[in-house]
Amino acid sequence: MIRIIVNFVKFSVVFAVFIVSYIANAQKLENSLLWKISGNGIEKPSFLYGTMHAVCETNINENVLKAFEQTNQLYLEIDMDDPNLQAAMMNKMMMENGVTISSLVSEEESKIIDIFLKENVGFSLKTIDTFKPFMISSMYLPKLLDCPMKAVDMELMKIATEQNEEVLGLETIESQLIIFDKIPYKIQVEEILKTAKNNMVKDKEEMNKMLSIYKSENIEKMLELSLESENKMFVEYTDDLLTERNKNWIPTIEKVTKEKPTLFAVGAAHLAGDNGVIKLLRTKGYKVEAVK
Fold first, then answer.
1. Could you tell me which of 281, 292, 290 has the C-alpha nearest to residue 41?
2. Which residue in 86, 67, 87, 83 sits closest to 75, CA to CA?
3. How far is CA 188 from the centre of its chain?
4. Is the predicted pLDDT of residue 22 greater than 50, yes or no?
5. Beta bridge partner(s), residue 265
6. Is the distance from CB of 227 to CB of 239 less than 8 angstroms?
7. Which own/partner contact pairs does 252-259 have at CB distance under 8 Å and 24+ positions apart?
8. Model pTM?
């Protein structure tokens, strides 16, 4: 009888923990780009901030500046002030095994891409034919905006530099570029061709939606829009681009937050979802709450 009671109590405790965990993960996240991380052995709170790499307005408000005052260092996805960053990118810029953009499309499609690149990037296809397609895509990113492009990451780094705070990275540029290498060149080129054919109309629509949602700080909607994108790279390789990276960052975030108060700034789409950074940290026992 005693053994039955003990087993029942154990089951009840396990079931209760499961329910609490389920509710925490099922709960809708508040609209906020800035989140405070505390508890679970952290002496002083750290902060988590959602960014976008191309915006018109950075959304860096008084709360973010206060978070800077309460922290001692800035962690971005990669260390943007690493002196070896540019060399590392140049080293990984070209496709391997003699593959070229023009070898992955028809002659007529090559002409379409060539005209598009000349008009929007200032290079002919022949000049950058060996570049990895996603590198080329980043070149016309500013053209998707109806304003001078700003990068939230760069603005944050500027503030950190002014405050003599160290800037570090959750991953290396090499590991980030390897992720894109998992996406077949053919799929990457198809996205460039699709953009060239409609002259960026669809891409601009998606960008404008994303900018509007980012301004509203609705991180769940940002993730949702990313997953609904017409871009195959985002939809078919979500695990590589988001989920696995989120999971890989958690041990570093745990270690760093226990050492010194830190401001972590990553793409806003990484924050939301059951496999987003917020809920992954909560599952580990940390208190992660929106800063309003």
1. 281
2. 67
3. 18
4. no
5. 49
6. no
7. 252/75, 252/170, 253/37, 253/46, 253/75, 253/170, 253/277, 253/281, 254/284, 254/286, 256/46, 256/75, 257/37, 257/42, 257/46, 257/286, 258/41, 258/42, 258/43
8. 0.86
